Amino acid sequence: MDKEALFTPRIEQDKVELPGVGTVIVRGLTRWELLTAGKVADKGPLYMERAMLAFAMVDPKLTEDEVARWQKASPGAEMMPVIQKINELSGVTQGASKSDLPSDGDEP
Asked: What is the value of pTM for the model shown?
């Protein structure tokens, strides 16, 4: 096995249509990004969502501040299909096993 293959990104991308706005392109999150976004969860879901979207938005690319602006301007459920697609591409949709994710006391 070529160990360099372990270090080569293998993250899928997909499009999500936002009615009345347009189409965005998102990608799945790497394990590091999932764990990093999880660390801000203690601030609340608002901040975790900002981190996830800032990592995953491909087109348009958004910063956390820009995601915050979108959160403030969007209808309540507008981001849900985007978050669902990111989770799907990341392999963390409902029904996916969470047993391989570390708990608070585990090291990443």
From this structure: 0.81
**Token couple for 69:** 């602006």
Residue 18, beta-bridge partner list: 22
Let me know the angle formed at the C-alpha of 28 by 79 and 12, rounded to the nearest 5 degrees: 125
pLDDT tens for residues 34-46? 999 989 988 999 9
Q: What is the pLDDT of residue 33?
A: 95
Euclidean distance between CA atoms 23 and 108, whole angstroms:
34
Question: What is the Cα gyration radius of the chain?
Answer: 15
Q: Is the pLDDT of residue 22 over 90?
A: yes
**Beta-ladder partners of 27:** 13
Tell me the CA distances in angstroms from 59 to 13, 16, 23, one per residue in order: 10, 10, 9
Query: Which H or E element spans position 90?
Result: helix 80-90
